[in-house]
Design a protein that fits this description.
Structural class: mainly alpha
Strand content: under 5%
Radius of gyration: 22 Å
Number of domains: 1
Oligomer: single chain
Number of strands: 0
Shape: elongated
Length: about 160
């Protein structure tokens, strides 16, 4: 992406690529958010409420939070990043259309290099964040594993 941003002869292909990554990012984030929310809802429904109560009573030593909050914050972090990425893609989609506010703003600088640098930065940020949220899925999978192991530990050796 960086090579393409530096070697593109014109700003138009860069802007089009930012728009297409935004479209792709919206589709990916909405789809994955649907699966994550459905999976979390099933996971929370299957787990016994008494176990959640026990986890809420016991403190995690390093963070000072209850074990319930400590375990569930991992899920919330993934949801948060996907919502932020979705919002960023919507902003690009709404304000970055041809003839939109960002296009008019970029038409202001007369120097083609300035427009290319701005479009290149937008491309790098959007595509970098897309890669980050896709890699964040492994964290969600680990969080499911971690909560499952914690649940087994709380059932096997209940806190006093």
């Amino acid at each position: 992406m960086v090579w393409y941003a530096c070697s593109a002869p014109d700003t138009a292909p860069l802007s089009e690529l930012v728009r297409s990554i935004s479209d792709m990012g919206m589709n990916i984030s909405v789809t994955i958010l649907g699966f994550l929310i459905a999976g979390f809802a099933i996971f929370a429904t299957v787990t016994k409420p008494e176990l959640f109560v026990d986890m809420a009573k016991k403190r995690h030593k390093k963070s000072g939070l209850s074990w319930l909050k400590y375990n569930l914050f991992g899920f919330v972090r993934v949801f948060f990043h996907y919502l932020i990425f979705l919002g960023l893609c919507i902003l690009v989609k709404v304000f970055g259309t041809r003839g939109g506010p960002v296009s008019l703003l970029l038409a202001g600088p007369k120097d083609e290099t300035e427009r290319r640098v701005i479009a290149g930065i937008a491309l790098a940020l959007l595509s970098g964040y897309l890669v980050y949220v896709l890699l964040l899925l492994k964290t969600f999978i680990y969080d499911v594993y971690h909560v499952t192991v914690t649940n087994i530990r709380f059932v096997w050796d209940p806190p006093q």
